[in-house]
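Input:
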Amino acid sequence: MEAFQLAIAEHVAEQHRHHGKAQFFWVWGALLVMTAIEVYLTYQNMQPVRMLTILMGLSLVKAALIIGYFMHMKYEVSRMKWLTMCSLVACLALMMIFFPDALRILSLGVK
Amino acid sequence: MADATTISHDMPAAYEPSLFGTYSKKIGMWLFLLSDSLTFGALLYAYSYGRISTPNWPTPFHSESIVNATVMTAFLLTSSLTMVLAVRAAVDGNAKAQRLWLLATMACGIGFVVLHGREWSKLIAEGLTLPVFPHAPGQEASGEFANVVKTVPQFPATFFGLTGMHMLHVTLGVVYLGVVALRRKFIPILLVFWLAAWLGTPAYSPFHYGAHVLLLAAIVCSIILWLKPKVYDPSDVEVAGLYWHFVDLVWMFIFPLVYLMSAKIF
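Output:
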């Protein structure tokens, strides 16, 4: 292995030293439990909007756990965390501009 | 310009320090994942747009489909766990454990694709199809969803577009992990998978043609592995892991939005 490759390998090892394997099993368990809750809620005959809100809330928590722990973002430098996550959320939020049009079609009907 | 030999982060290099405090491969993968998030975001928004604007949106997923999709979710979540264990093994310098955990991750990914393929085949047999799919014998008008295709064509278009894109990502993820775990030894295995998928599916199945993605992947991987053979180090495993966790992450939104919100309750 070349010297630069070894240095990167050591950098990766250093970044992964602050947490044990048990943490990964806890996150995995939490993700499975939240999935089970989602499936349970599906059969509770809830109002669609309420159910959508709860399901999306749980999905966001699951996404945060995956990004934070499995993708290791929790341990990155703050510049990396804020720039990547803020730009992503901003771009995805911009796409919501189409939803009022969908509601307009619903109220007006399609000719 | 800053002194090119000054190093202020932990890695020795003849370049300026990284803005993000990590190596460039990882930053490159994060940038790719951010752009890919927007691709999936657009598809999820298109699905949601169709759902909001269509009052008679179908709810075609029986409990059997929901159980199938839940097992698929469990497969993906478990594959994420095995992937972090592979990264940890790579960091610890345990090459054997790294390879085994990568193979376990691939097995979960293959399980996901097989279950998803089974779900697609069932829906297509019941009449939920796209005009671009080959025509299956005896499929016309008798299937449960034949009417859905005529009255709400947005549903099959967005459903197959979104889940098909995700299935493609999982398939390519399995190939990526196979290359990292087995390098050149993976190419003949990939060709066996291609032949099995191509010859094992009927000619009217979209998977009969979709299997050629594996042939294309085998050609691309062969070129890469022959032109630039290398021993994959922990950073390569970590970067591959980022991609794998991303496909898991995307499914966390597809599963509730597409399946659970369209479950047939009674």
